[in-house]
Amino acid sequence: MHPDTLAQLRRDSVPLFNANRMKIGIFGCNVSNGGTISKAPTSHRPTFAHNLLIAQTADRLGLEFLVPFGRWKSFGGETEYNGDCMEVYTWAAALAARTEKIMLFATSHVSTMHPILAAKQGATIDHISNGRWGLNVVCGWYAAEMEMFGERQSPHDERYARAGEWVEVVKRLWCENHFDHVGEHYRVTDGYLEPKPVQQPYPVIVNAGVSAAGRDFSARHVDFNFITMDSVESAASIAADVRQRAHGYHREIGVLGYGFILVRDTECEARAAFNAIIEAGDWGAARNIMRVLGMESDSFNAQIEQFARRFVAGWGGYLMVGTPESVTAQFVALARAGVEGMALVWQDYAQELPYFGERVLPLMRQAGLRI
Ligand SMILES: Cc1cc2nc3c(=O)[nH]c(=O)nc-3n(C[C@H](O)[C@H](O)[C@H](O)COP(=O)(O)O)c2cc1C
Fold first, then answer.
1. 179: exposed, middle or buried (C-beta count within 10 Å: 0-12, 13-18, 19+)?
2. How many whole angstroms from 253 Cα to the centroid of ligand 1?
3. Residue 308: inside a domain, yes or no?
């Protein structure tokens, strides 16, 4: 059996490998305004006390994971969007100590952290959490963040080549001792790391590569890829592509998605709440981000404006706006398309999670998506 298949079998106790057909995660609660680029009123704060409330609520509801944004700088706009944020490894370590079952990820930029430090901090959090830590590898696309570190942003595909070497070093530290590594970007002499992580042979690794190079990196090196989809049809074809790429490397890979969720008793209420968020959009920040992502020319044409609405609510992820019943139907369709879990943005995580627990989770259980 290929070692990576074996790796999966030895991590049965990890929430992302449980029997639920649709795993649920919380996405981006460590940053100001979370994943909602809007001035609409919210109780959300990127403080530790508030994040602890969210994490413990999610833990009590039996959700599988929390994945933070790896962020170093604001995107400007009236909200100074995401500028106020907590560092991801220390955040995960502290939440790990105060939760029971939920997984905590650290979203780690390759170029801001040496692989030895990433492996060491990750192994330590895996011990603090008793095997509930995960690594979300990101290459960095916001040049101003990377330049703050004195790093020149390298061309897109080269970032993934470096990430491949980075993650190989991290894995070796988790699995071996007394090895030498001489690569293009890193040199490790007599590599050593103890204690090894609780998860054997190493903690769950995820990545959100969307480009061909990104998907290929995921297929080759990680356990789950976060796909970006705007419809069930695109989810099905992207999920199939990612899995096929992994098979090309004789590996299996899981597929997760991300999106924005807003659930109310009636469609009318849900639409009204959604429209209020969009109307209060922090367009200055949204434009800044889209400019960095290369999505915008100088003017806001109709097509971009349409996309911008999806962008303001959940970073261009999958939109889940409706009643408990209609949102559950969306989860069913996504599961059929091969999506095994969703990392979700709520406009007000702490306020809205209890309703999700009371009204949506029971329907998901009835639909056979969750035990
Ligand atoms: C669910 C998800 C989480 C992400 N988290 C971060 C993050 O916290 N920090 C970051 O710089 N990029 C983050 N990204 C960006 C990805 O790492 C990646 O660069 C992006 O999806 C574009 O794919 P590409 O690099 O293949 O072009 C995230 C993307 C997704 C979909």
1. middle
2. 18
3. no
